[in-house]
Specification:
Structural class: mainly beta
Order of helices and strands: EEEEHEEEEEEEEEEEEEEEEEE
Largest sheet: 8 strands, mixed
């Protein structure tokens, strides 16, 4: 089983680790009864997941060491450890209606990271299993493509993580797998970091791909998965202004908000034709920048960013309330 990852950088990249570099995960031939663990997603962390069983490796190779030095060769791959996830439940409540919905997601205890995956949640005594796609709030511009046919299934996940420049952090892309019994785990991945002064718009992308071929009774089924994730630099927003504009370009309403303080929903004034979202930022030299986005009144939502303390910038989607028809129009 091999793994292939593609790397692309628009800024200076420092590659850390080589466990996943330059290979492709594939199974050329197998049977339906010989299920192998499958790639289902990625967990991005800013700390290296040290899962290597060093003690076990030393115990098994003690006779081959010389001069007090321990050198780990290619045979060390089987000592790469696993970090298993827990399936947790969360009750979400609608603020206005009070309606409650139970959501299940996979969590890695004790690890801070951004997960993005597509997998099947196993059956339980209470319910049947189901397929789900999960992602942390740090995943923006997420897109999932699923295709199923008699020849096999294909899954493609794409997303972006916006981060503040100048943090000097390394981002580790740890592959997520699911075993035949439904358990989900990650293994240690390789890392990327940018050097020097970074500017908004700089980015680097990593792609993980896996292919599986199973033959049963002369019939071959090919499954595949692709996970593409980009790290995109963004100056932290300092202020967000939402303008409601009339047909003649006059300002009808103006709202100024700090990062993360944008309302949960926007109710346009009666004569509002469109809205402008103006985001104030500062570049590395302290110069003020303003980004503007225009939204028609009939759009479902507008978007506004805020950055967390860890430097991850979150894209918040704010619903635009629809104007209810008058009684005379009914």
């Amino acid at each position: 089983m091999r793994i292939k990852e593609g790397f692309m950088g628009l800024c200076l990249l420092v590659f850390i680790g080589c466990f996943l570099t330059g290979c492709q995960l594939a199974k050329e031939e197998g049977s339906a009864g010989s299920y192998e663990d499958r790639l289902v997603g990625v967990l991005v962390t800013t700390e290296y997941l040290d899962l290597f069983d060093f003690a076990g490796y030393v115990e098994d190779h003690i006779g081959s060491f010389s001069g007090g030095e321990v050198q780990i060769d290619g045979a060390g791959e089987k000592y790469q450890g696993r970090l298993y996830a827990e399936l947790t439940k969360e009750i979400l409540s609608d603020v206005e209606s009070g309606h409650k919905v139970e959501r299940e997601e996979y969590d890695f205890p004790g690890v801070e990271g951004i997960a993005y995956y597509s997998l099947r949640v196993p059956d339980t005594e209470e319910r049947e299993g189901y397929f789900t796609t999960g992602s942390d709030e740090g995943i923006s511009d997420g897109h999932t493509s699923l295709h199923s046919s008699d020849e096999g299934n294909s899954v493609a996940l794409e997303g972006t993580v916006y981060v503040s420049p100048g943090l000097g952090r390394t981002y580790y892309f740890n592959p997520m797998y699911q075993s035949a019994d439904g358990r989900v785990y990650v293994t240690s991945g390789s890392g990327m970091s940018s050097g020097g002064e970074q500017s908004e718009g700089e980015a680097f992308t990593q792609t993980m791909k896996a292919d599986y071929t199973v033959t049963e009774n002369g019939r071959t089924v090919k499954d595949s998965i692709s996970v593409q994730l980009s790290i995109h630099m963004m100056y932290p927003p300092e202020e967000i202004v939402i303008l409601q504009m009339g047909e003649d370009g006059a300002v009808i309403s103006r709202g100024e908000y700090g990062p993360g303080e944008v309302p949960e929903r926007i109710t346009p004034e009666k004569d509002t034709a469109y809205l402008i979202v103006e985001t104030k930022k500062r570049d590395n030299s302290g110069r003020i920048l303003k980004d503007r986005a225009i939204y028609d009144r009939d759009k479902e939502y507008l978007e506004a960013f805020f950055c967390r303390e860890d430097g991850i910038c979150i894209k918040k989607q704010v619903p635009i309330e629809r104007e209810l028809p008058s009684l005379s129009a009914l």
